[in-house]
Amino acid sequence: MRPATILRLALLGLLLALVLRPHAFVWMFKPFAPERGSAIYDRTSLLSLAMNHLVLVAVASLAATVIAVALAIFVTRPAGEAFRPLSRTITNIGQSFPPVAVLALAVPALGFGARPTLVALFLYGLLPIFENALTALSTLPPRTMEAARGMGLNRWQRLIQVELPLAAPVILAGVRVSVMIALGTATIGSTVAARTLGEPIIAGLLTNNTAFVLQGGLIVGLFAVLIYDAFVQIENRLLDRRRPAPRKAA
Amino acid sequence: MIEIDQITKTYGEINAVDAVSMLIETGTITVVVGTSGSGKTTLLRMINRLVEPTSGGVRINGEPTDAIAPYLLRRRIGYAIQGHGLFPHQTVARNIAAVPRLLDWPADRINARVDELLTLFGMDPDEFRDRFPQELSGGQQQRVGVARALASRPDLLLMDEPFGALDPIIRARAQDDLREIQRKLGSTIVLVTHDMDEAIRLGDRVGVMDGGKLVQYGPPEEIVERPANGFVANMVGDAERPMRLLSLIPVRDLTEEGAAEGSTVPETASLRDALSACLWTGRDAVPVERDGAPIGRVTLAAIRHRVGQHP
Ligand SMILES: Nc1ncnc2c1ncn2[C@@H]1O[C@H](COP(=O)(O)OP(=O)(O)O)[C@@H](O)[C@H]1O
Ligand SMILES: [Mg+2]
Question: What sections of the sequence does the record tag as coiled-coil (chain B) (predicted)?
């Protein structure tokens, strides 16, 4: 086994243990807990918080991907060309709002819980995906595109068979950035009562229990590392065969 | 037959292509040659309607090209361009199969066609079928580009500087391959180039463009021997005209009765080869053979006379 694989499996094992058997880690967190406080957050099951957290991130990122890619496709068609500057402005504004502000604004409209968090994650996720999709779709190799048109692929066929597959690695890199942002930002959702891994962190901050903060932070961090790694693996796989291979000896 | 009728494309003030008319016979190679910016690409792209003409039209076998949707027209016309434009995310086989797939050919027919074309272009199907374009040399990529353009047996093959990116030796080989494959398949090809050598080497007919106008259109011998104006003469290159002319005429044309000493040349060789043999071995005549049997000779004097004959 390669060292990278071993490291990956070790991190995965640690993550699963932290989520499924939190009490096995008392020794680790005890030094950070207050005198008579508990070292392990067990007001809710960490497993259910983790699942909730991931589902929120997945739903928000999926929605952001669909909308951002659709928007990028639209503004790279002749009909949508005129909207390109406007669409950039809008996604940039989405990004420059602090997430807490988005939550604060969304709560009166959507109530407490998962929904304002989803909105915040979604808005945050748009820009990196949109920027990458826009770059990828507007810098496709011109000769390849000309050949595609010249051999009689219609617009739809060009988009599905050529443009999107060629843009996929770069789009995916945008999705990766966006998922990373969402993984972190979702913790803030706990301030508006969304059930995420932010719960132990917020609880720890409120009760001066550093152990809880570390526990939540460590789990989120491990998820981030492993998911990031998975994305990079997929991106590389997509690109692998398009790169010049080392020539076989003749 | 392709009929190009008074076709014009105007960009702003300038006519990129200016009232060009051409008749292109089925089963021939027509080469359009001209300097950069003379309108060659625009002319070619109006044939498959990648560019819509400002006025004039094109008929293929009597049918106007604007009678069907452009993408359907293009599936009947092969298109190969400089730098091949292969799909980097698809294997060689999938690249070649692009148009047959669009035309809904059954899978086994597509596979057979891919293997047939790879073999035709001297690439072992088992070795190359599943490679990606980046795993090929420049010459191989170019061949796959041409194979892809030929895959559906199109009525017509358009080629825009297809060999421009190749180095001279590989280019010469690619030109020979194309000529041979065209003979075998009987394809109709319109090829665009800025290289007069390529035009003379490949063209059954050569069209010379200058500033959007077709200034001369005829067999390569005519272009070399009787350039229509100074521009064409310049393109042909005065110093090289005698050699160009000789390379176009087969030895057969000047073979006379009589004997000569030394090594023979086949009757299908060019006068240029015969001249070269004379000069290299210091002879005044070389024997000519057909299928290994002597049929006469060609003399230095006759070659000199033939070159001096041009108008
Ligand atoms: N899309 C276009 N818009 C404006 N001018 C163009 C366009 N395409 C070509 N031209 C102009 O038309 C002329 C002929 O171009 P082109 O057909 O590409 O020449 P060639 O292929 O012989 O180099 C050039 O002056 C070029 O600048
Ligand atoms: Mg050109």
Answer: none
B251: Cβ contacts below 8 Å, ≥ 6 apart: B265, B266, B267, B268, B269, B270, B271, B273, B274, B288, B298
B193 Cα to the center of ligand 1, angstroms: 14
Give chain A's mean pLDDT.
90
DSSP string, A154-223: -HHHHIIIIIHHHHHHHHHHHHHHHHHHHHHHHHHGGGGT--STHHHHHHHHHTT-HHHHHHHHHHHHHH
CATH class of residue range A46-240: mainly alpha
Reported ipTM: 0.80
Given pLDDT bands bounded at 50, 70 and 90, which one contains residue B244?
confident
β-pairing, B29-34 vs B205-210, is: parallel
Ligand 1 centroid–CA B250 distance in Å is: 38
Return all residues near B245 (Cβ < 8 A) that are at least 6 apart: B221, B224, B225, B307, B310
Considering only CB atoms, A166 lies closest to which of B81, B89, B99, namely B89
Whose Cα sits closest to atom 6 in ligand 1? B11
Query: Nearest 5°: phi and psi at B37?
Result: 90, 5
Q: What is the pLDDT of residues A136-158, one digit of tens each?
A: 999 999 999 999 999 999 999 99
pLDDT single digits (tens) B95-144: 999 999 999 999 999 999 999 999 988 899 999 999 999 999 988 999 99
Pocket of ligand 1 (CB under 6 A): B 11, 16, 34, 36-42
The distance of A156 to chain B (nearest Cα, Å) reads: 11
What residue has token string 């998820």?
A223
Yes or no, beta carbons of B135 and A146 under 8 Å apart:
no
Distances (CA, A) of B75 to A234, B3, B48, B144, B156: 34, 19, 9, 17, 10
Interface check A151 vs B, CB under 8 A: yes
CB contact, 8 Å: B248 with chain A? no
pLDDT of residue A117: 92
A25: DSSP letter: G
CATH superfamily, region B2-237: P-loop containing nucleotide triphosphate hydrolases (3.40.50.300)
Rounded mean pLDDT of chain B?
92
Spatial CB neighbours of B180, under 8 Å, sequence gap ≥ 6: none
Q: Does B104 reach chain A within 8 Å, measured CB to CB?
A: no
Name which of A148, A153, A245 is nearest B135 (Cβ-Cβ): A245
Which CATH number is B249-308's, of 3.90.1280.20, 3.40.50.1100, 3.10.200.10, 3.40.50.1970?
A: 3.90.1280.20
Closest-CA residue, ligand 1 atom 3, reads: B11
State the Cα–Cα distance between residues A98 and A114, nearest whole angstrom: 18
Give helix A46-75 / helix A114-138 axis angle, nearest 10°: 40
